[in-house]
Amino acid sequence: MIPTxxxxxQVEEYYFSKKLREVRQMLSEGKPVxxxxxxxxxxxxxxxxxxxxxxxxxxxxxxxxxxxxGLPELRRGMADFYQYHFNVALDFNTEILPLMGSKEGIMHIxxxxxxxxxxxxxxxxxxPTYASVTELVQAKGVFYDLKEANNWQPDFEKLELMDLSxxxxxxxxxxxxxxxxxxxxxxxxxxxALGKKHHILIVNxxxxxxxxxxNPISILKIEGAKDVALxxxxxxxxxxxxxxxxxxxxxxxxxxxxxxxVKSNMDSGMFYGIQKGAIEALKLxxxxxxxxxxxxxxxxNLIFKLAEKLNCTFDKNSVGLFVWAKLPEGIISAxxxxxxxxxxxxxxxxxxxxxxxxxxxxIRFSLCVSEDKIAEVISRF
Length: 381
Hints:
- The chain is of the alpha/beta class.
- Helix content is 38%, strand content 15%.
- The strands form three sheets. Strands 2-8-7-6-5-3-4 form a seven-stranded mixed sheet, with helices on both faces. The chain has a four-stranded antiparallel sheet with strand order 9-10-13-12.
């Protein structure tokens, strides 16, 4: 028996990887399972995006290795996107690095900046990959609380009481996943000030800004942010391109160069056709976002009805691709609650506990489910 690396001892298989095997098994047995758990857009990209990819297949260099930094016109499109939507100026040659999805960026950033034993501030609750990647690079995760009473934002007074001398990096994600809490420019100013005071790299993971959100903002909008901050973004949710794997990281050229050193040793460039499709997606205007949000609004209103049927409470002002709902008093375990629904009603809902201990007592519904299916779920109750 060949032993695995020590780094795997504290890392478990991704929750959705395990749970979706169970869901697939139930489906293979003929059970009518409806998956309301995972945030994988079920809507298609715009036709212009697909046409651009198809057309690119006949270009001379379509099937060659591509640049580690992506096509210049892709980086320029990303820079134009940030200038138009966030009023953030970026040098497309030095301050943007396309990624094969922003999840890849979490690993690349961690490898670029963390040494063994460095500490990392990880929000509780948050995207589980922050913690697992921290373990994989043999750094130490230090969890900081996010609570509903504080609108799922960190308590800066409590952070200042912590020993931050070994902290090298801090993960944040606003609009917040999984709760849908939005950030503000004032809040981002506090984060940048914290980073500068304690020499901490602040990384904002920002893939949900344009879903049911009237005020998209970027941490890079804050003066001086590039000194201590990076921002991850993605086309997955914004343009229904999750399976295409197109993301990007933005920030000061010195920080981007460090990430590129890692990335260039881990892949051989993004497929040309996907880049051409992404370039076209980034050109889409306000009509695209309006059309998408009209669909998501209808779905969210139905999920609000479903949450009420389950006697849950929720914030109608939250944004993003999910509805985060608080379970009624008396229910001890979110995982037991959703497992019972999966068995009894053939419906999969995400338990809040997979995002951290502060997710206990909460469940998360995805908006990546058609209105007909949501109506069917409601009828099952």
